[in-house]
Amino acid sequence: VLAWPVTGKCIITLTTDFGLRDAYVACMKGVILGIKPDATLVDVSHQVAPQGIDEASYLLESIWPYFPSDTIHLAVVDPGVGTTRKAIAVTAPHGRFVGPDNGLFAAVLRRQGAIDPKSGRLVAATAVELANPRYRLPNPSSTFHGRDIFAPAAAHLAAGVPLSELGPSLSDLLLSPASEPHIADGVIHGRVRHIDRFGNAITDISGDALSGAPRIQAGNAVIEGLSRDFQEREISALVGSTGYLELAVRNGNAAETLHLGPGDEVIVRSVQ
Amino acid sequence: VLAWPVTGKCIITLTTDFGLRDAYVACMKGVILGIKPDATLVDVSHQVAPQGIDEASYLLESIWPYFPSDTIHLAVVDPGVGTTRKAIAVTAPHGRFVGPDNGLFAAVLRRQGAIDPKSGRLVAATAVELANPRYRLPNPSSTFHGRDIFAPAAAHLAAGVPLSELGPSLSDLLLSPASEPHIADGVIHGRVRHIDRFGNAITDISGDALSGAPRIQAGNAVIEGLSRDFQEREISALVGSTGYLELAVRNGNAAETLHLGPGDEVIVRSVQ
Amino acid sequence: VLAWPVTGKCIITLTTDFGLRDAYVACMKGVILGIKPDATLVDVSHQVAPQGIDEASYLLESIWPYFPSDTIHLAVVDPGVGTTRKAIAVTAPHGRFVGPDNGLFAAVLRRQGAIDPKSGRLVAATAVELANPRYRLPNPSSTFHGRDIFAPAAAHLAAGVPLSELGPSLSDLLLSPASEPHIADGVIHGRVRHIDRFGNAITDISGDALSGAPRIQAGNAVIEGLSRDFQEREISALVGSTGYLELAVRNGNAAETLHLGPGDEVIVRSVQ
Lengths: 272, 272, 272
Fold this sequence. Notes:
The structure is a homotrimer. Chain A is α+β, with helices and mostly antiparallel strands. Chain A has helices spanning 24-35, 53-63, 106-111, 145-158, 254-258, and strands at residues 11-16, 40-45, 72-76, 87-91, 96-100, 126-129, 169-170, 182-184, 187-195, 201-206, 215-218, 221-224, 235-239, 244-249, 265-269. In chain A, strands 8, 9, 10, 11, 12, 13, 14 and 15 form an eight-stranded antiparallel β-sheet that branches. The radius of gyration of chain A is 20 Å and the shape is elongated. Chains in contact: A-B, A-C, B-C.
């Protein structure tokens, strides 16, 4: 985590599965700028696969260390919109999060140590349900809470409304199961978590768990030892820019070459 | 329409068919920021299908209520660039509009009551032709008026230049035919107007026109009654977030499942 | 080049091959805004083909005249990340450029007269290697210099750090060969440089090199004379908005119709 100062000039990031062809994202931005005209808006991604909660939670986990601590991360991947799933806002050690209570923020809160691993309860974060009608648009729709509930909440937070004003506090959030590798007899069984634009396959195996010269089995390849960069070898295993083991092919596409997709197993053995 | 205050900090939205791979949109933004450095730029969509005037006019109709009244909506879907079609700017009750005179703004002006339904003339809006060379780039090209004519006009408006300075006033605009359902014997014959990223099929039938428990015939499906949200039923008909009837499939793609595309007929019968 | 004033409010443009689905661009923006919270960020394109240095250099060449002179153009298309290729910043007559030393900026520097055609050395520009660790993130990764080296350098420049503070000066840059047409006996042999979203094929033949009523041979077509706009003829050759000869098909796709792609030859003969 970078020691960013609190900036005063509030940043709101946006992560959705709304795509870039429709005007859904622009509606949210109009609502935010109507409430907080000098907010700085940063798009994280709107190309998350429809209903891709895991993908969005990975993106949020990879960006938060690079934004100031008072940044508001607004995320809307919301298959349950209009049902009983809660709308929430969370103040964490590093950043504030606004969106549906469907597991979107579980990975980032775990990474920040804000969830007790035993009880599964929030320990270093405060959450509320967005229930106060004063901070929603009038007559919110049942199908577009991004515009009618989440965008106004994020903008009001950015404008200085205290979290507690937005609704009653929550001590439990819906936490999706963590994507965590299984370790037994020194062998790590992990999974591909994300394929990026270059075809790099990013796993859930932290670089910290690797030692010596590991032998990595991924898709149809066995890779001996770690590379430092993408050019060193034809097929590389390396600790990528978010701290996780990833597989890459020099000037090529590892997912295609190695036949790897999200969820596929990656096995790491330490070699003596 | 939200009661947004006039903000002082001027927003310019951009809607084009320029795509995101080329640098056309960035050129427009450079021109705007050179003239009005503190403008707030919001992308609506640049993924409008090439020459997709209807699609862009739908997007504009869906966003304007969510932006402050002094927002400038710059839209460039311009198959006639370089020909005799006029370049225009319009001040409407809610928002200002800059772009080619090819019907792009007809839907939004109708929705705001700015066009007399009988005469087809502007009644609550003021339009000018962008003819004053002082507010264009020098030597405008014949192929990129977005950069050379529309972006400078929007920026100068944002910087406080009065509309009347930009050119002579116009009383008639080119108005594309409205996409309006036909109603006879209590049966509504409408059309699909837009397929969004989720495959939801949005029609031109206003939620206000629906009553009781309608029976909706769309593509290969007949749907009885309206849903409140996307999760209630497998195949839903509901009044969507822009106020129009839309067809959706739970965690699926209605356009594919029901075989629906833009222009396809949707029939609504009231059931007693 | 427009006579833009130096604005005071610093613009940073971003051109990458990172795509819009991943969060790489957002990480860079978070880093920039942490260092220079009031920077104005403008996306040029993130859809450059992976490792598409030529494509990115074309985009940079087409935008710089439309941005104020103090704009910082941050470009990251970086197949050699982590290897010995240098990280650089360049102050040119019109704009500042930050990115890898792999030829990305050669076209724009040539166009600005900043490279001596004989010696290939910088004559009207100052370049440095980004070697000062003070202006990088701590512990930069070997795989994401966009976030760890280039974004901080651009932000610190925007915040007023002098170029010379960033590292030692460089007199030679890696210059990719210019894409320049060959002229012999009055016949110009050029190449397609870019296919845009509309299918227009933009060549490397400057409009200044054309005279009279040229006969243009491109793909499977021979076109007699130049058009002024896209609507004048079914198949048009015209001097496009960036000053180069381009081929277009009215309301259609020239690349598909004429079977043209990047690198394909285009021949121009003057007709008496």
